[in-house]
Design a protein that fits this description.
656 residues, Tachylectin-2, Chain A, elongated
Length: 656
């Protein structure tokens, strides 16, 4: 046996068996088609009046003698007996039984229909003619001599054998010469013959193999003289061949950059249409320049709430009319309403994320600053009407301080509303999204982060996105590190294969665009990155970006952090440029995370540049379902200082 045959033995066997099966199905079909010819039945005629029986049934006996051309195919006997299933009264009766080949008996019935109908009319109370039949397949008759049906079956068996042999040879040949995999074939064949007896509309008999049990049921039912009897003969034959198309194995493909999904929100699909100015003064003696990132909107009252300036206050800002259009400097200004200062008793925690809980109460969230240690008191509610505050401790008692600090930095300082229908299915009804992420200090996540919480949770348990330092989020690969062993932290990675890795970019407050995506604003730098770029001349861009290498790596400047001025070899590196990007996450992937089918760091965002007015800095987002607008809190828009709330429409396709 060749190697090809050994490797393809199963198709040989399957093909051969299927070929034989098809032949058998044909054989069954022929058998069913000729079932009446090869089956046996009994015709029973009962008459109380023996004289009438003798005179009126003479034609039946003559028919038996005429049709019984082969000895033993029909048997006729006549006997007297007591009432039975075919008589409804006590007394003697004569029974004429014609037994034998079903086809011949049917011929008798056809030829003598008038006689049988006459018998029926003479005694309407009694069923004059009834049939108790047994049907069975006769696949092995004692002799085929002179039997046309037997000859036909022998011929069918021969054809089946030849087809099976031919199929086997073809299959062997196919195995010797390998061909593409053939689709599977499913064959179903069913056949059967039935005499169904209905008495008063109720079926009392089914398949002929159960005739004895059904005969007893018929006898009981026929005890009623008014019973209406109906006999039906049925033959059923079904044959089904199903050939499903083969499913080709997909060829492995390299990991491309994720394409925008139909629901992805990208910068190319955003169009700035107007907005409001945030009043520059009026809350807590501070200016509004560094407001945000937190913002939320109450559509019923047309009231915003934002983190106002750097003094630790939150402020209610009320719309006085529709948003302005055109240049931001012409937009109307929001009116200042109520304000308050949460976390006043918590060291080094201030409100960064805000969320309306009702018309008076705001949920506030914060996180710690550099090397200030963990605190569980980073979530609180503040009633703007009464000033009442409630601190909500958030700590995992089973985690160490380092793990709790990461939880604080990942899920603090940002809040959003998760759509109720989605939350009911995936988060156990939790509609508060806590998180922001982005690298702030050591222990912060290297990428966006979000968890679903309720105010009774002691700590966030339903994590949607998180990026510990071992699993940084993806980013644009257009960056490089300065040539120095002091220029980078061990957890920072070089771009690989067109994929960059999160370095030190900041995330603003995210938004859930209902029916589309979860979106995070991100601030990152392209170009040269150096850990020592933390405020020295030429390295004051933020996020460790070196905006002017000719100054930062210049011996005429210094002394500086890490002696970077002496590394003149880096002066020719490309300058760092601040970019504001949009990370768009598919809710279906987030659902997979909550179902345990995907890790929280394994969601693949669609990344794009966010369209901004000249000089603006993006710090927070909010989706306004009532108007279908994505709002952005932008800093440094007017005169390089004043912040605004800018409204964007979201188109279905890019460039609309």
């Amino acid at each position: 046996m060749s190697d090809a045959l050994k490797e393809n033995l199963w198709p040989v066997v399957i093909t051969s068996l299927l070929t034989v099966l098809v032949g058998i199905c044909g054989y069954v079909a022929v058998g069913i088609q000729n079932g009446l010819t090869s089956a046996t039945s009994t015709l029973v005629v009962v008459q109380k009046d023996q004289v009438k029986l003798a005179t009126q049934m003479s034609t039946l006996t003559s028919a038996v003698e005429r049709l019984d051309t082969r000895q033993g195919e029909l048997r006729l006997d006549m006997a007297a007996r007591k009432a039975n299933a075919f008589t409804a009264q006590e007394g003697n009766a004569v029974q004429l039984r014609i037994s034998g080949n079903t086809a011949l008996i049917n011929e008798i019935l056809r030829d003598n229909q008038k006689t049988l109908e006459q018998l029926q009319k003479e005694d309407e109370r009694l069923p004059a003619v009834s049939r108790a039949s047994m049907f069975e397949y006769d696949y092995e008759p004692e002799s085929y001599a002179g039997d046309r049906v037997g000859c036909l079956r022998m011929f069918v068996l021969l054809v089946v054998f030849l087809l099976g042999s031919l199929g086997f040879l073809v299959a062997v040949r196919a195995a010797e010469q390998p061909t593409p995999p053939q689709p599977a074939v499913t064959v179903t064949a069913r056949g059967g013959a039935y005499y169904r007896v209905l008495i008063d509309g109720d079926e009392v008999s089914k398949h002929s193999t159960q005739h004895k049990a059904h005969e007893r049921a018929a006898n009981e039912a026929l005890a009623n003289p008014d019973a209406a009897v109906e006999v039906r003969y049925e033959v059923r034959y079904e044959f089904t061949a199903v050939k499903p198309a083969p499913t080709p194995e997909p060829e492995p493909k390299p990991d491309p950059e994720p394409e925008p999904t139909a629901g992805a929100v990208t910068g190319e699909r955003l169009k700035l249409v107007g907005g409001y100015q945030i009043p520059f003064t009026g809350v807590g003696g501070n200016n509004a320049r560094y407001s945000g990132p937190g913002l939320d909107y109450d559509a019923d009252r047309r009231a915003w709430v934002v983190r106002y300036g750097v003094g630790g206050h939150i402020a209610e800002l009320i719309e006085q009319g529709p948003p302005g259009a055109g240049e931001p400097a012409t937009w109307p200004e929001l009116a200042i309403g109520r304000s308050g200062k949460p976390f006043a008793t918590v060291d080094k925690i201030g409100p960064a994320g805000v969320l309306w809980l009702d018309a008076d109460t705001v949920l506030c969230s914060g996180r710690k600053s550099y090397r200030s240690g963990f605190t569980a008191d980073w979530l609180a509610t503040l009633n703007l009407a009464t000033g009442e505050e409630r601190i909500i401790p958030m700590a995992n008692p089973g985690a160490d301080e380092q793990a709790n600090f990461h939880m604080l930095q990942a899920f603090g300082a940002g809040l959003l509303r998760i759509p109720q229908p989605w939350a009911d299915v995936h988060t156990g009804g939790r509609t508060i999204g806590a998180g922001r992420g982005g690298y702030d200090v050591l222990g912060s996540p290297l990428g966006p982060a979000l968890a679903a919480i309720n105010l009774d949770d002691p700590y966030p348990k339903r994590v949607l996105i998180d990026h510990p330092k071992e699993t940084p989020a993806p980013r644009n690969p257009r960056y490089q590190f300065a040539d120095s062993d002091r220029a980078r932290l061990p957890m920072w990675r070089d771009p690989v294969g067109g994929r960059g890795y999160w370095i030190a970019g900041d995330c603003g407050q995210p938004a859930w665009v209902i029916g589309r995506a979860l979106v995070f604003p991100a601030s990152q730098v392209d170009g040269t990155i150096d850990y020592r770029a933390q405020g020295d001349r030429g390295g004051n861009l933020g996020h460790f970006g070196v905006e002017d290498p000719t100054v930062f790596y210049n011996t005429n400047d210094g002394p500086n952090r890490g002696d970077h001025q002496s590394e003149t070899r880096n002066a020719s590196l490309p300058p760092a440029v601040l970019r504001h990007r949009l990370y768009s996450y598919d809710p279906a992937q987030l659902a997979e995370v909550l179902a345990g089918e995907r890790e929280p760091h394994a969601c693949e965002p669609t990344i794009s540049d966010f369209p901004l007015p000249e000089g603006a800095r993006l710090v927070g987002l909010h989706y306004d379902e009532s108007r279908g607008l994505l709002w952005a809190l932008l800093r440094d828009v007017i005169d390089g200082k004043k912040p605004v709330l800018a409204a964007y429409t979201i188109t279905q396709t890019e460039g609309e």
